[in-house]
Amino acid sequence: xxxxxxxxxxxxxxxxxxxxxxxxxxxxxxxxxxxxxxxxxxxxxxxxxxxxxxxxxxxxxxxxxxxxxxxxxxxxxxxxxxxxxxxxxxxxxxxxxxxxxxxxxxxxxxxxxxxxx
Length: 117
Prior knowledge:
Shape: globular
Distance between the termini: 40 Å
Order of helices and strands: EEEEEEEEEEE
Strand content: over 45%
Radius of gyration: 13 Å
Low-confidence stretches: none
């Protein structure tokens, strides 16, 4: 069955870094665009970054552009989100979404990121 599992969240200090991972199984990973979203309490879910199936195309939302890097390892069926210079307003649940070629999408459960002194 399809599994999308995020990890790597936790507590970080302002200015700190975290690296999130998203491990996927149950579908042909390299054919899927992978993306990271986040949702803060009381706010709508928003796109953070996405990466094409072969990793050649990346796109970043303005809210975190310059502070995050998305990458993927198709041999490991894993996508990463390196986050630097974290701010308290980055506190949110970060979710991984697989976007399929036929609009078949899969979400993970999310990992909590809290940025606080």
